[in-house]
Amino acid sequence: MPPSGPATSAPRPPAPPSARWPAGLRHPRILVGAGLLILLTLLAWLGPLAAPWGFTERDYTSFLQPPSARHWFGTDGSGRDLYVITLVGLRKSLLIGLLVAVLTTALAAVVGAITGYFPGLPDRLLTWLTDLALVVPPLLVLAVLFPIVDKGGWVALILLLAAFGWMVTARMVRAATRSLRHHEYIRAARYLGASPTTIIIRHLLPNLSGLLVADVTVNVSAAILAETGLSYVGLGVQPPDVSLGTLIAHGTRYATTHPWMFGFCTGLLVLLVTAVHLLGEGLRDALTRGIPVHRA
């Protein structure tokens, strides 16, 4: 005799936000931001290959010359081709922004998931640490630690920027985890004997993937602007390396007399930050619906 009612089954977790990605990718801001970012990335890595001049080559017949068929972005005071130098700086800023964003979001995901899942002492300790890190002036600390950046190069700069950029994202992940841990599929996993580590890795974080992916892109623009600001005041990327920040700092003194020294690197910075911001905000709108993302 067939059963009189529907069969019961264990509660299943909701579809992670990644299941909504194909539809979310049609968001206008995502399309514009991703297209512009791909174009800038290709330009940064492939553009120097098409230039007739190398990064260290000098044209001793052209000093501080405006853009021309020979030097597409003009030359600097030592005769170097600004087209190649600017694209190498764009590449370095992109690389720093991406690595800082990935490290920041990974650290924030770990801290936020632990504090959100475990009430009591772990939550209080890590929340206190997060609050402490938020009130410490990062520029002052970076100035004190500048000798480390000077010796360790831009890799040390990446680690320092990541160390001071994870707190806001950690609060967002904590708020989302505190909400998700009461769902039925989390209770069922605990009832079946799953360890807290397994629950966090296999159930909680996958359902926060949309939030984390969107936050990575937003953190890229924040990291690029932070690196630019630090390099502008001499606390970031150090010679002989170049970034958009160092190029802007060097070109500022020529902004009125030789505007190509300042204009191209500044324009690329504006385009880069705009592209990443559009992509990040579009992903956040498309992938974080229904996820609590309070920053307080």
UniProtKB/TrEMBL annotation:
Gene3D superfamilies: MetI-like. InterPro entries: BP-dependent_transpt_permease, MetI-like, MetI-like_sf, OppC_N. Residues 1-21 are annotated as: Disordered. Keywords: Cell inner membrane, Cell membrane, Membrane, Peptide transport, Protein transport, Transmembrane, Transmembrane helix, Transport. One of its GO terms (cellular component) is plasma membrane. It is a multi-pass membrane protein. Pfam families: BPD_transp_1 (PF00528), OppC_N (PF12911). Residues 1-19 have a biased composition (Pro residues). One of its GO terms (biological process) is transmembrane transport. The keyword Transferase does not apply. It is found in: Cell inner membrane; Cell membrane. The chain crosses the membrane at residues 30-51, 94-118, 125-148, 154-173, 260-279. CDD domains: TM_PBP2. The keyword Transmembrane helix applies. Residues 94-280 form the ABC transmembrane type-1 domain. Its main location: membrane. SUPFAM superfamilies: MetI-like. Belongs to the binding-protein-dependent transport system permease family. OppBC subfamily. This is Oligopeptide transport system permease protein OppC.
